[in-house]
Amino acid sequence: LIVLGATLGGAAVGAVIGGPLLAVPLGAAVPVGARVYLAVLAKRRQSAFADQLDDSLQLLASSLRAGHSLLQAMKSVSQEAEEPTAAEFTRIVNETRVGRPLGEALDETAHRMDSEDFSWVSQAVAINREVGGNLAEVLDGVSHTIRERNQIRRQVKALSAEGKLSAYVLLALPVGIGAFLSVSNPAYIGKFFEQSMGYVMLAVAGVLMCVGTLWLRKVVSFKF
Hints:
The chain is an all-alpha fold. The chain folds into 3 domains: 1-44, no CATH class; 47-142, Receptor-associated Protein, CATH 1.20.81; 153-220. It contains 9 helices and no strands. The chain has helices at 2-18, 20-65, 70-80, 85-97, 102-112, 116-131, 135-184, 186-190, 196-220.
């Protein structure tokens, strides 16, 4: 309802300022902006969870060595870890207490956090529950692997930061120049809206911008 109201409000403001030509873009920008904002928040939460996973596994292994059961050890993590790890482990403990299998709760968390590392933890716990063994030592091994992966991930992030900044500048430059010209020389920009060829040129420019955005995103994005 909030997004719908903001969309209608943006369309109304656009209609008052620039008529239908501005109402449609402003109205469409609100839900797109809301979706992007939520995606950014989710990505930050997932990144924080990934950064905290190494310490969380060490705490989990320490609790197991102290003689706690796996569920008690997870409860300790939920009480002592930082957010969002504390909230996720609290959810796992609560779901397990109401009857959901532990493996399903762990798999769901790995999927929700988009964490391949945590899926390893889920698999390690599932195998240990079937064949037995020292789960604390297994978690130590997984923690060591995750620590090394996080180091590589940080190095890749640092090396790709310059490329991402260049991509942002290249994508913002046409929009910025267009906005500047529309304010400083409206007659120059207005010629695009006087003939059908102008609309065709704007449409082609929009398509090329979309293609360039996808291409730059592919170039500066790394997944391992």
